[in-house]
Structures
1.
Amino acid sequence: MFSALGRWWKSLSDSCKYLGASLAIAMVKRKLHRRPHDWTLWLTVARLYEIGDQWSLAVDALERARRLDPHNRVIAHHLARVREAAKRDSSDKRKTEN
């Protein structure tokens, strides 16, 4: 019984996390419409996409941030980390499918 409760709680917790990230993404995107050249907003939205395991959207946002500030080491580091996490996640999913 405890394991069923634990799985239920994790599912609820994950749902709340993704819902919160989705709401935050919508808010940051509204700011991006007004300030599309603000690399910090692109970095923020990338982090929010990462929370939801939306790797391709996170990479796209980070690449946009990098175009706006090409010498920024924070962006470069984060982009490399997200690409690596996306590869790992993709590999893990292939393993569970087989």
2.
Amino acid sequence: MDSYQSSQSDASVRPFADRREAGKEVASRLRKYAGRDDTVVLALPRGGVPVAYEIAEALDAPLDIFVVRKLGMPGHPEYAMGAIASGGIRVISDDVIRWYGISPAAIEAVAREELAELERREREYRRGRPLVDLRGRTAILVDDGLATGSTMRAAVQAVRTLGPAKVVVAVPVGAPSTCEEFQDITDDTVCARTPEPFSAVGLWYRDFSQTSDEEVRQLLEDHAQHVRARSADHE
């Protein structure tokens, strides 16, 4: 496994202008994946999509979304007992379930609630398109930052079940300890900035306004059009 990449140059002490600028910086650290037909960029919506758009454009790689919904423990929703993800994937932490004695009925109740939001996002963004085939490919999972990393950790587990050759996590900013932890579960981790002390992802963006459903759809369509145009140029 490659060690995670970070940089603490003078430029890294200032916040990113926005997620698009952040994506360009991350893309500059992923050049070894550029122009390869086995690379796929997967964005965690919604905030990961503008970041991933710039990465996919720079690498000339397909862009898709990977919707992940954390399954929070009953009474402690911030604590993950598992996750559901695109493609009908469910990942459950057996250790957490056993330790806290969480019943199957309680798990199902949380899963039903999160599934409703996952399916809504799938309909909004995918418009009937299937998830890109990841078998034997390098899947680059992208979000706008890593704090505790629980959602991204669930995404890595879920993507692994789809048979990629490699799983890469790439983010503009992350807590140093979280970025280090991802070395153990990915083939490559890129955290462009790992500020110390780290308090919140949003502090590292001048514009951290919420990404809308419309922006997600527009970026996915814009990238698909660019891919079609480049493909036509090569014919």
3.
Amino acid sequence: MNRPSVNAPNPLKSHQANRTLQNMSDSKSPGLSYRDAGVDIDAGNALVDRIKPLVARASRPEVLGGLGGFGGLFHLGERFEDPVLVSGTDGVGTKLLLAREMERHDTIGIDLVAMCVNDILVCGAEPLFFLDYFACGKLEVDAAADVVAGIAEGCRQANCALIGGETAEMPGMYGPGEYDLAGFTVGAVERAALIDGSGIDEDCVVLGLSSSGPHSNGYSLIRKVIEVSGASLDQDLAGQPLGEALLAPTRIYVRPVLDLVGHFDIRGMAHITGGGLTENIVRVIPEHFALELDSNAWTPSPVFQWLAEAGNIESAEMRRTFNMGIGFVLVVPASQAASIAESLDEAAPIIGRIIRREGEERVRFV
């Protein structure tokens, strides 16, 4: 007698198991479903159907396969000879609460992409692909689709592919209408072209690229300012509603900056996020150098003046919390500063210079 395969089903046991399941089902009427527990699988499927065309628009030729697999596939091809992969992850923070209050969910996804791709751009890396994580208590398909539309738009601006994501519906973890976001990106740069700040010296100056507003940092303080000042999100601020100025999506610097890399001697770069101008630029400057910033070299947008006045916030606190109108900086040889600024389609003023460090002070405003 041949021994049956270890994995072969036992018809008797299968029959008994089916009878047991049937008896369990009959004993409880009506039976509970996942939807009764607060998770709507049909809503999740509806969201996937809604976002498929959005994801298709945020793609690249290197992407293999489509939406719905267990993993996103990306083929590096032969573009890189000695690539270094650079990864980044971030969220949007309490700016989400402002978006929820304004019932505007279509730009917050741009913030999510921007916070990730701008970080890896600092190394000179080209963002290749992006994944998102969307968590909520109850899936509201329209709002979630708006969020993903923003993510797809951010990927389009950054020329990276949206190759995957996760939607987690977790009743009890989040309240009605609440959700949270996280993003993950991977880019690549040739090892020989990696920008790490090691070439920065006293011959270098700092060029500033403008921000679109507070970007995605300092919103716990911003919301506190709104609370204590009694401000309305509908009130006018330099020709637009205050809420619109505060919700302006984070600027994505990938295209203009990558156009410079390889053509100019870019010694270092910094994404101005939490910590502001005070703490971010020195992260890429060698320890034996310091930074002198000219606060008169640019004019911050009106939203920063409003925050300082409405919240009675001191200058030092403003500088280490907000980007103050400068969202990204380039550290370059002074001899190339004019040429680099001229090659950009925007103003890129010299906002500071590298100096020899004396003592503990790393940043000085003049």
